[in-house]
Amino acid sequence: MLERPDSKAIDRKSRIAMPSTVIEKQDPDVRIHNFDEVYLPFDEESAKAAAGRCMQCPAQACIKACPVHNDIPLALWHIENGEFADAARIFRMTSTLPEICGRVCPQVLLCEGACPHVKKGNTPVPVGRLEAFVSDYLRRSEGLPVERQPATGHRVAVVGAGPAGLTVAELLSKKGHSVTVFEAQPASGGVMRYGIPTFKMDHGLIDEKTEYLEQLGVGFVYETMIGEDPSVDDLFDQGFEAVFLGVGAGVGADFEVPGVDLDGVYDATPFLIQSNVKERDRPSHLNEPAKVGSRVVVIGGGDTAMDCVRTSVRLGAEDVTCVYRRTEAEMPGNVRDRQMAKEEGVAFRWLTQPLRFVGNDEGRVVAMECIEMQLGEPDESGRRRPIPIEGSEFTMPVETVILALGYWPDPLMGKTTPELETHSWGLITIQDEETGATSRRGVFAGGDIVLGPALVVRAVAHGRRAAEGIHRFLTGSDGQAN
Ligand code: SF4
Questions:
Q1: What is the number of the ligand 1 atom nearest to the C-alpha of 72?
Q2: In ligand 1, which atom is closest to the CA atom of 102?
Q3: In a structure prediction context, what are the per-residue pLDDT tens digits for the chain, which is 482 residues long?
Q4: Exposed/middle/buried for residue 228 (C-beta within 10 Å: 0-12, 13-18, 19+)
Q5: How many Cβ atoms from other residues are within 10 Å of residue 289's Cβ?
Q6: Is the CB of 114 within 6 Å of ligand 1?
Q7: Residues 286-291: contacts with CB within 8 Å, 24+ apart?
Q8: Is the CB of 334 under 6 A from ligand 1?
Q9: How many A from CA of 317 to the centre of ligand 1?
Q10: Among 60, 74, 90, 95, which residue has the most ligand 1 atoms within 8 Å of its CB, making it the best to mutate?
Q11: Whose CA is nearest to atom 7 of ligand 1?
Q12: Ligand 1: does its nearest atom lie under 6 Å from the Cβ of 104?
């Protein structure tokens, strides 16, 4: 490993003047015909040049902005010097999923948004793509070390194979604990496989991660929903000493308008699963591949809505429109995804609220009645409230509608687990922010079931703190008798 450079020795003036990095992507005319990753990988020289724009600022704002606090300047220094494997090891010190976070984090809001190049009107150092590049480089060149401490004899159940659960499984297995992951779906990954499309992140990365965890000794039990039968109590009865709940928040929000049950109106999650997940990994009731008509409307403004419009384009729809009830300024999703959707031909209809879906004699959706909106005073979310404009109703023809209106947690776990405190809509209450411990002794939680729908990297951060908390709990170093 290289020493951290003296920031005073870095010529910041010349680095700030360096030309912005161009991140190569598939051309929009090409990529709309495939489901491959849109971003193309760096070659070694362009990675070095991109990292060489880092000014090694003493303030390290990027580290603070990263939810897992990756040591970004030190990793970039290694990349600049061609030490790609060591750079990857630096990311791996603080993150269990650098190859995935590098691809799916909304970097504009996190590490890259804090880069001082942005203040100067330049593009930031492309931290995410570099993180993905070196993580791929390490796995391809050396593989990941399969190193475990001696077996402790302690048994841990992880419920949910999403980013938080996989993080807990990896870190506890490395400490010598016996870990079994229970997952309701037929394969691992949670939201990473069953929510994020392959054109943003190759699902093979999740397969590789899962194989690595299996080499570390982690056991996986698929198609097993923990909650009612078996319950969390049953897991303790089976001899598990601690349970981590990382079940996500994957229940689609209701949309109660007439016609929502017509054929051709889909919820976002099944639609994304049927179009992006390999058949072998789909639950049996979603075996059929998704089909869209030539006119598709996606309702919603977040990341899932962008995933659905871009998937629809790739499935061959000719006219894809995102309908959102506020303006672009209030849209919550990643701005880069929205930009790419525009490049791919997606149209946007702002300040529009659907009122009902209209079907034909066969019960298939053929039109959508809408009303135009205007923005009023801010609501409890701080965003200006959309208000209908009387008399502005209009009808648009549609063949397929996809509802991407957000997600809620499944309240099952709170209902079936004695002494487990929950709050708003079933989110699990954390009693100890340092460890992720819940009100039920021996039960820890993290990720979307605690936060509500959030970022993969925040779930990783939760998994890291819970792994440490569970380790201390198992070994009695938390000061309490186990
Ligand atoms: Fe940036 Fe996300 Fe990587 Fe942190 S994990 S350095 S926020 S891309």
A1: 6
A2: 8
A3: 999 998 888 999 999 999 888 899 999 999 999 999 999 999 999 999 999 999 999 999 999 999 999 999 999 999 999 999 999 999 999 999 999 999 999 999 999 999 999 988 899 999 999 999 999 999 999 999 999 999 999 999 999 999 999 999 999 999 999 999 999 999 999 999 999 999 999 999 999 999 999 999 999 999 999 998 999 999 999 999 999 999 999 888 889 999 999 999 999 999 999 999 999 999 999 999 999 999 999 999 999 999 999 999 999 999 999 999 999 999 988 999 999 999 999 999 999 999 999 999 999 999 999 999 999 998 887 888 999 999 999 999 999 999 999 898 999 999 999 999 999 889 999 999 999 999 999 999 999 999 999 999 999 999 999 999 999 999 998 766 45
A4: exposed
A5: 11
A6: no
A7: 290/266, 290/315, 291/315
A8: no
A9: 33
A10: 95
A11: 66
A12: no
| 285, two tokens | 């009731």
Place of tokens 């801010």: 378
Listed residue (105, 80, 98, 224) closest to 161, CA to CA: 224
- Cβ-contact 134, 125 below 8 angstroms: no
**295 Cα: distance to centroid of ligand 1 (angstroms):** 36
Query: Is 70 close to ligand 1, i.e. is its CB under 6 Å away?
Result: yes
